[in-house]
Specification:
8 strands, single chain, 3 helices, 141 residues, 20% helix, ph1033 like fold, alpha+beta
């Protein structure tokens, strides 16, 4: 099983949660093809809205990949993004700043935002546990 972070604005994350899906890298299939059923996926939102929303810098959703292959949908005649189905957990939006020191994937704590420029990337089990614990502990209160 692999753990992923997908960098997506909050408005797009909320659309995905409602529809139980994720897209990545502006609808391209490459990273979605690397995911497997049961993989964890955490959504980090640098902004509230794409492309010019207010800064947010928070983890906004978490779930598990729920299908075996990416599939394509037609949103408009010129835009047919690829998606994966996701079973989302109940969680709360969680600011990243209090977690930075505990996250191993952030190698340079002074330039912590750099890694998110890659869109989708893998994280280890430790980082999954840190983020998942922070996001779901408050949700269960």
């Amino acid at each position: 099983m692999t753990n992923w972070i997908n960098t997506v604005s909050r408005d797009h994350v909320e659309r995905g949660v409602r529809g139980r899906f994720t897209q990545a890298n502006h609808g391209k299939p490459h990273m979605l093809r690397k995911m497997s059923r049961g993989d964890w996926i955490i959504f980090y939102s640098p902004r509230t809205e794409h492309p010019n929303g207010a800064p947010l810098q928070a983890f906004t959703a978490i779930g598990r990949v729920a299908d075996d292959e990416p599939y394509q949908v037609e949103m408009t005649p010129d835009f047919q993004p690829w998606r994966r189905n996701v079973d989302f957990l109940e969680c709360v939006e969680t600011p990243i700043r209090p977690l930075i020191d505990a996250l191993d994937f952030i190698e340079d704590k002074a330039r912590w935002g750099y890694k998110f420029r890659f869109g989708v990337f893998r994280i280890d089990d430790h980082d999954l546990d840190v983020i998942r614990s922070a996001m779901t502990a408050a949700a269960s209160i």
